[in-house]
Design brief:
The chain is of the alpha+beta class. Helix content is 28%, strand content 24%. Helix 4 crosses helix 6, helix 4 packs across helix 15 and helix 13 packs antiparallel against helix 14.
Length: 584
């Protein structure tokens, strides 16, 4: 044991008198007269070292040269601390150092490695290997590891096989942009990095491997935000001989197992809601159910009162804010400005108050009587001292805007409890969505999703009203997973490609391998993929997935530590048969 007999989180009061060797990084250093105290840190924890001038004067003098983040090896005896630290597992003991070596000196780090650091995001990402030493980041990486362990444990016990699929695949036109990789051996042709292993896991079902999973890296060349990275990790799963209920049952079990084993939380109930109801009552296909405040359709109560804004609207939506009648005009104006932001897209707000004294007041008193306002509140389940906020316009846009306002109100009014978890399945999505700019349908999930059985007959005649046999798992307003029962019939798959605008030649060029596989006995199958990074962040109480990735990219998709992406030499490009045009 040249470098250590124990790690820095291991020793306890019962080890008093034991001769030990520890190695790690010097963290905090304090000198008090003839004593130098150093906190030695490794992956496992912190142990306090004592260099005592009276006991070992030569060692004490040498210890004065130790700086922050020096890598050192010490040997000494465990003794009880006179000033114990109850915040540390090792806080009852310290090591009286009798010998030590500096294994490697360190320059002063560019930011403090304390839990509350003085380093900004870009600086910490540039020196990510230093940021990873900080306890909050270390805690996130440990949680990620624990999540992976528990996912594997659960799926292995359910007879799933972990099977790897290729990273160099064929580019497909559907979905987000692919990352493209040129082939040196077949110049002028390109691989794509997979956005998901979707077709491979379906081929594994055709091959008879009826329960597959993979914790797999995926790649999408898309604009970034807090919950997106150009490379990310999925828990990817597929099962054969299943209906939707079978899939939901298996993965409700996974979610409950993860919460129990990782968070110590027992999940009792996972709700279910249709896509149509999610949009109608929450203005979102991933509703946050930790608070109420459903959306209410007031169109039947607002027409024909000479108020042109409502008379010309296709939809009038109301939110009832409990206890909101006491809000000032300034507060309401702030909510009005929020919905008028371009990314929200509403024209403004109408408000109505049911005052504590029983009277009514609104911004449209000129057009609506107290009886009208009473009917509004009654329809919305409101009571005295409540506030109604109304939006009007195109139904689809107003539902989205009202959903955003609902979340904004909850955050502003403190209605969300961060330690509460509300989990639900959203079911029966539309199979297709129409893009008016391209004058064609696109698959809402992907082109391999099966319609619900009773809607298959409408696929050719009324595709816009076909429901998908699909399901999303939503936790606290975050889509954590999504999947579907797949098409396994060759003819139905060809019909789906046709509705999406593929000619037979295009479908065979892009997906001929899958259509051919369906000739040889494809079983009924379905699956799901969970966003592993999102799941980890959600369990850790964060909205930013990069806090849970060891080496993430920044918001511009750059690795500022490696300075990537970067230019490559002309010789490399020539070898790949890829030329770059230059301005002459």
């Amino acid at each position: 044991m040249k470098f250590r007999t124990h790690h820095c989180g291991e020793l306890r009061i019962t080890d008093t008198g034991t001769q030990v060797i520890l190695s790690g990084w010097s963290f905090r250093i304090r000198q008090f007269g003839g004593l130098v105290f150093t906190d030695l840190r490794d992956r496992y924890g912190i142990t306090q070292l004592v260099f005592d001038q009276n006991e070992y004067p030569q060692i004490f003098e040498q210890a004065l040269s130790i700086g922050r983040e020096f890598v050192i090896r010490v040997s000494g005896v465990v003794r009880e601390r006179s000033n114990k630290n109850p915040q540390l597992p090792t806080g009852d003991i310290e090591i009286l150092v009798s010998d030590f070596n500096i294994l490697n000196a360190s320059e002063t780090p560019p930011f403090t490695l304390e839990p509350e650091t003085d380093g900004g995001d870009e600086l910490r990402m540039k020196y990510r290997y230093l940021d990873l030493r900080r306890d909050p980041v270390k805690k996130n990486i440990f949680l990620r590891h624990k999540l992976a362990q528990e996912v594997r444990s659960y799926l292995n016990n359910k007879e799933f096989l972990e099977i790897e699929t290729p990273f160099l695949i064929k580019s497909t036109p559907e979905g987000a942009r692919d990352f493209i990789v040129p082939s040196r051996m077949n110049q002028g042709t390109f691989y794509a990095l997979p956005q998901s292993p979707q077709t491979f896991k379906q081929l594994l079902m055709v091959a008879g491997y009826d329960r597959y999973y993979q914790i797999v890296r995926c790649f999408r060349d898309e604009d970034l935000r807090a919950d997106r990275q150009p490379e990310f990790t999925q828990i990817d799963c597929e099962l054969s001989f299943v209906e939707r209920e079978d899939v939901l049952s298996v993965f409700e079990g996974l979610v409950k197992h993860v919460f129990s084993s990782v968070k110590g939380i027992e999940i009792q109930n996972i709700e279910r809601i249709s896509y149509a109801d999610a949009m109608k009552y929450y203005g979102s296909d991933k509703p946050d159910l930790r608070f109420g405040m459903k959306l209410n359709d007031l169109i039947g109560f607002t027409k024909h009162r000479d108020f042109q804004v409502f008379n010309s609207a296709g939809y009038v939506c109301a939110l009832c804010v409990e206890g909101g009648a006491g809000m000032s005009r300034k507060q309401i104006d702030a909510f009005t400005e929020f919905v008028k932001r371009p990314q929200i897209g509403a024209g403004g707000l109408v408000w109505a108050k049911w005052e504590q004294d029983g009277s009514f007041k609104s911004s449209v008193d000129k057009f609506y009587s107290s009886d009208d306002l009473q009917a509004w509140f009654d329809h919305c389940g409101g009571k005295q001292n409540d506030l109604l906020l109304l939006l009007s316009g195109d139904e689809k846009k107003i539902l989205k805007a009202a959903g955003e306002l609902r979340l904004h109100l909850a955050n502003e009014l403190g209605l969300i409890h961060p330690d509460e978890y509300k989990i639900l399945w959203v079911l029966d999505f539309p199979l297709l969505e129409y893009d008016e700019t391209q004058n064609r349908y696109f698959a809402m999930h992907h082109p391999f999703t099966s319609p619900v059985e009773e809607d298959i007959s409408k696929l050719k005649s009324d595709p816009g009203n076909v429901r998908a046999n699909a399901y999303d798992l939503v936790i606290n307003g975050v889509e954590v997973g999504g999947g579907s029962i797949r098409i396994f019939d060759r003819e139905l798959q060809q019909d789906m490609f046709s509705v999406l605008g593929f000619s037979n030649e295009q479908a065979n060029e892009q997906f001929g391998f899958l259509l051919n596989a369906f000739r040889y006995g494809a079983p009924p199958h379905g699956g799901i993929a969970f966003g592993f990074d999102r799941f980890a962040a959600l369990l850790g109480g964060s909205e930013t997935i990069r806090d849970y990735i060891a080496f993430p990219k920044n918001n511009q998709g750059r690795d500022v530590m490696l300075d990537a992406p970067a230019a490559v030499s002309k010789e490399q490009l020539d070898e790949l048969g890829v030329g770059l045009k230059t301005n002459s």
